[in-house]
Each structure stands twice: as structure tokens, then as C-alpha cells.
Amino acid sequence: MSSDEKDTDDETWNKIQAKRDEHKAMVEQGTNPSRKKLRSWLNNTFRVKMSDGRILIGMFVCTDADANVILGLTSEYTEQGGEERILGLVMIPGRYIVSIEVEDNSVAAAS
């Protein structure tokens, strides 16, 4: 390895470390924009379409790194318009999620 390659590798490594440190500081201070967005969705109503055609509507509780979503007070509907089925607390594996819609609660709060 030449001296130039080593310098380039060191610069790259330093950039990666600096970015990691910056991200860590943002997380500790609670200023991470992604986390702020997730927090803003807490207790909002989510409408989740699943790959098997079911639609789940419930209150957003949390998610994880694998895009699994947990909803509380959840009801299940079918695309064919079947009856509502009350499920309660559910964990939806991310691999089965086709789409998610978030109900905008700001309109209701303004009324």
C-alpha cells in the first residue's frame, strides 16, 4: 500500500468516525430528524395495507430497524369490504407492509 492510499484510507475513516460521532450526539440530544418524525406519529392513527389484501387501522405504538410496526386498538378490514374484526395490539412484519397512511390529527385539533 502506497503512502497516498494510506492517507486516503485515513481520511475516509476520519470522515466516517466524524459522521458517526455527529449522529450519536444528535441522538443523545434528541435532535435526530428521523426520531422527531417518529415521535410526532406516536398515538396517531395508521392505516396499513398488507400484501395479503388486509387493511389494519390502529394507533401507532412503535417500529424497529426491520420496519416492523406495532399498532394498538387495531381493527382489521378486507379489501372486499368484509366486517370489521377487532384485533387489539398487533405487530405487523415489515416485509408484509405494502403502504402506510398516517391520519392527520392537526385538522381535528384545530376544530
TrEMBL record:
Cited Pfam families: LSM (PF01423)
Sm domain residues: 33-106
Extent of Acidic residues compositional bias: 1-11
CDD domains xrefs: LSMD1
Domain of life of the source: Eukaryota
InterPro entries with a match to the protein in the record: LSM_dom_sf, LSMD1_Sm, Sm, Sm_dom_euk/arc, snRNP_SmB/NAA38-like
Annotated region (Disordered), positions in chain: 1-34
Family that this chain belongs to: Belongs to the snRNP Sm proteins family.
Identification of the protein by name: Sm domain-containing protein
Organism: Culex pipiens pipiens (Northern house mosquito)
